[in-house]
Every structure is written in C-alpha cells, then in structure tokens.
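Translate structure to sequence.
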C-alpha cells in the first residue's frame, strides 16, 4: 500500500534508546541474559577445582612424586637433583584424586536445562574420572614395581651378607672386613 501511495516508510512510533520504555526493556533483557548465564557459569565453575587432573600426564605425576629430580616446584639439593615427594605428600595427593572422583559425580545431574542452555556434564565427568583413575593406577603400578625392586635388592644384600658371615674369621683383618660389611649393609638398607 505504501508503494502505491508513494509514501515514505517510517516507523509509526520512533524507537530511540533514550526513551524510558526502551531503557526499561534493555535493562530487562540484560537482566534476563545475565540471569541465563549465572546458573551455567556456577555449574561449570564447580568443575574448575578438578582442573589439576588435566594439567599433567599420569607419567609426569609419577615422575613428580616418585623420582628424584621430578619436581620443579622444590628448591634443588646439592648436585642439581630435586628431592622426591614425601610419603605423606604422595598419600595426600592420592586421597585428593580419589576424593575428586567422588566429588565430580555429585556436581549436578548429567543433563541440566537452564534458561538458555542445556548443559551435558556426563562426558566431562567421565573424562575426569578416567583421568583420575589413570593417575592412581600409574602411581600404584610404579609403587608396586619400586617395592618389588627394593625387596629384591634387600634380599640380595642379605644373602651376600649371610654368605660372608657363615665363615668364621681366621684373622683380625677378616674380622674387620666382616664388621665393615655389616656397617655397609646397614647403610644400604637405610637407603630404602
């Protein structure tokens, strides 16, 4: 109809941001948008506490806790090597990882409908749990391997010492050698 009458197209009511109705509407829209992002951001921020699981590989964590020289956060000892973590630090870390498995499962349902979004956290939970389990398994495998190697070394050391002690010393020199062997053995055992 406007074309037939050669009329210019103009809005019936001019829309300007300065009008109170427009300001009110923009504030409502902004409030709704902010409200729509609050719940998803709260849910996603709960996953932040588990981000440490994704920072390092399981092998890097094993090196950090079970190898000398594996931790960059600790001051170097003499000779350039870094001390390995203590047993308490390792136990605390394992407890933290196991707690993360339990806690990540309780964050929210696997699927959550919010105002604007549908959050699906099932896959994220699954990835976090799998990574935590890989870390625990890697640490336990390495501890098992180290323990077996230590047992074998200690057994060999005891067998060598027993062989030396079976014979009766025939001279003072042989007795001193036996005594030195016992002290050396005690020092080696203290390393484990």
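Result:
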């Amino acid at each position: 109809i406007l074309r037939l009458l050669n009329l210019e197209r103009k809005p019936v009511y001019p829309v300007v941001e300065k009008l109170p109705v427009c300001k009110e509407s923009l504030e409502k829209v902004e409030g709704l948008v902010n409200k729509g992002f609050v719940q998803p951001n709260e849910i996603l921020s709960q996953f932040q506490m588990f981000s440490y699981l994704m920072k390092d590989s399981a092998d890097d964590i094993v090196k950090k806790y079970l190898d000398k020289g594996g931790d960059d956060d600790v001051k170097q000892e003499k000779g350039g090597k870094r001390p390995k973590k203590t047993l308490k630090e390792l136990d605390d870390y394992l407890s933290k990882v196991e707690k993360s498995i339990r806690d990540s499962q309780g964050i929210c349902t696997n699927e959550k409908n919010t105002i604007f979004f549908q959050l699906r956290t099932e896959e994220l939970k699954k990835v976090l749990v799998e990574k935590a389990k890989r870390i625990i398994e890697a640490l336990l495998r390495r501890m098992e391997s180290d323990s077996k190697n230590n047992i074998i070394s200690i057994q060999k050391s005891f067998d060598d010492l027993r062989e030396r002690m079976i014979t009766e010393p025939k001279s003072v020199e042989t007795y001193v050698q036996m005594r030195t062997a016992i002290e050396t053995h005690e020092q080696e055992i203290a390393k484990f």
